Amino acid sequence: MKALVGVVIGAGLGYAWYRVVGCSTGSCPITARWWTSTLYGAFVGWMMGST
């Protein structure tokens, strides 16, 4: 349950990072697209929640 909450929060923060910071040039591997930033955030959230 803790890992699932971490995934949801991480995905939300990853998407927020894309919207707020983003990448204007498109050359950033993580923040260039919304779905990569969201997936990366979800992965980090899962890692933090599963400990």
Features:
51 residues; 2 helices; 69% helix
Describe the structure.
- This protein is mainly alpha-helical and 51 residues long.
- The protein has one domain.
- The protein is built from two helices and no strands.
- The protein has helices at residues 2-20, 34-49.
- α1 (2-20) packs antiparallel against α2 (34-49).
- The longest helix has 19 residues, at 2-20.
- The mean pLDDT is 92.
List the helices and strands and how they pair.
Layout: H1 2-20, H2 34-49
Helix pairs in contact: 1-2
Major beta sheet summary = none
User: Beta-strand percentage?
Assistant: under 5%
Instruction: Provide the gyration radius in Å.
Output: 11 Å
**Number of strand segments:** 0
Order of helices and strands: HH
| Number of helical elements | 2
What's a concise summary of this model?
With 51 residues, this protein is mostly helical.
